[in-house]
Amino acid sequence: MQTALLQGADILDRAAVTDPRLTAEVLLCHAMRCERVYLYAHGTDDLTEVAWIHYGRYLNERLKGMPTQYVTHRQEFYGREFYVNRDVLIPRPETEHLVEAAISWLARHEAERVLDVGTGSGAISISLALELNRLVLASDISPSALTVAERNRRKHDASVHFFAADLLECIAPASIDLLVSNPPYVPEADSATMQKEVRDWEPPAALFAGASGLEIYQRLLWQAASVIKPGGRLLLELLRSEAGRW
Fold it and tell me: Any bridge partners for residue 179, and if so which?
């Protein structure tokens, strides 16, 4: 296994893949269906032929630019593992701050209805449902994304009701206590300067939001004004670009 790990890390390093050693470990573990600690405990063991075949395929996919999370279909978020594929945005660590802010607000306020708009993999809504032991509503415009979200809901046995919707168009006036969302935010013109792993592999509908990058925010804010109850709250993730990187 050490030989396979060293070879994989070298291949990834020569291709300028970020964190080549860690990436090789993750891909090798995925090929062997084991945890990383197993590599250290059994480093001198030989790799089976089947494991070599899978490992080589995973390395090749990563060399093509596919994010590691799409190769392994795994991403950790708020202490839990979520299934991801190219139908959903890969949950980012910074989005955990949105979950923390929602939990903090809900701890201080009575709230009957919580809605996550643009749920994607369901990471935000499922995390809230599990942390607070309550029902959470969640929507997405993409049926494929909702399929992924439902898979994650079943995996974690979370009390989340998913439904298809374009932002808040089907939500009744003054019916939501807390609205959370991590909407698309990237201007279309920034596509050329984005990291290829993001631009070429993650779903465009979850990334790009018109010429300014603010179009979805503007629509969401306009609609939220009518659907949030008096005294309710809207929590959004807001990001900005730095030197063309998102």
Answer: 115, 234
Residue type, position 5, single letter: L
As a whole-number percent, the residues of the chain with pLDDT over 90 amount to 80
- Residue found under tokens 């708009």: 117
Q: Is 92 exposed, middle or buried (0-12, 13-18, 19+ CB in 10 A)?
A: middle
What pLDDT does 246 receive? Answer: 32
Q: Please, what CATH class does the domain formed by 76-236 belong to?
A: alpha beta
Q: How far apart are CA 110 and CA 211, in angstroms?
A: 38
Average pLDDT over residues 186-190: 88
| Rounded CA separation 81/59 (Å) | 22
pTM of the model: 0.91
Say if residues 115 and 179 touch (Cβ distance below 8 Å). Answer: yes
Helix axes 2-14, 20-32, angle to 10 degrees: 130
Determine contact, residues 6/43, Cβ cutoff 8 Å: no
Domain residue spans of the chain: 2-64, 76-236
Mean pLDDT of the chain: 92
Strand partners, 228: 176
Report whether 150 contacts 159 (CB < 8 A): no
Residue 177: name the closest of 115, 107, 243, 84 by CA. Answer: 115
